[in-house]
Design goal:
It is built from no helices and 11 strands. The chain is globular. The model has no long low-confidence stretch (mean pLDDT 93). The protein is 0% helix and 52% strand. A hairpin with a 6-residue loop joins strand 4 and strand 5.
C-alpha cells in the first residue's frame, strides 16, 4: 500500500483559491491512479476529482468541474488539487486516496471501493 499525507488546508474566503498537496511514500505511486474526496460536516464522503496513473486522464465531480484541477508529479510522488473560486459549501475535510489496482484504466474513479489507501485528511474552511 501507499502511505499518504495531505497538506495545504486552511481558511479561505469564498471566491479564493487554495492548493492541496498529497505526498505519497511507497514505490508504486507512479503506477496508481489517485483521487481526492471530501466530507462536509454531517454528510457522506463524496468524490471530488481523480487522475490516472500516467496523468493523462482526469475526472471531476460536476460540482467542481471547471473550478478545480487535479495534477500529479510522479517524480515527487505528489498529487495536487488546485481549488479556485471556492464556495462556502465546500467546507470539508479533504482526503486523498490511492487506487488499489496498478495501471488501472477504467472509468470508476468516483467509487471509494476503487481505493485502498487513504490519507488522514486536511481541513478546508471557506468563509462567506
Amino acid at each position: 500500500q501507499v502511505q499518504l499525507v495531505e497538506s495545504g488546508g486552511g481558511l479561505v474566503q469564498a471566491g479564493g483559491s487554495l492548493r492541496l498537496s498529497c505526498a505519497a511514500s511507497g514505490r508504486s505511486f507512479s503506477s496508481r491512479a489517485m483521487g481526492w474526496f471530501r466530507q462536509a460536516p454531517g454528510k457522506e464522503r463524496e468524490f471530488v476529482a481523480a487522475i490516472s496513473w500516467g496523468g493523462d486522464s482526469t475526472s471531476y465531480a460536476n460540482s467542481v468541474k471547471d473550478r478545480f484541477a487535479i495534477s500529479r508529479d510522479n517524480a515527487k510522488a505528489t498529487v495536487y488539487l488546485q481549488m479556485n473560486r471556492r464556495k462556502p459549501e465546500a467546507t470539508a475535510v479533504y482526503y486523498c486516496a490511492s487506487c488499489a489496482l496498478t495501471y488501472y484504466s477504467g472509468s470508476y474513479y468516483d467509487r471509494e471501493s476503487l481505493y485502498n489507501s487513504w490519507g488522514q485528511g486536511t481541513q478546508v474552511t471557506v468563509s462567506s
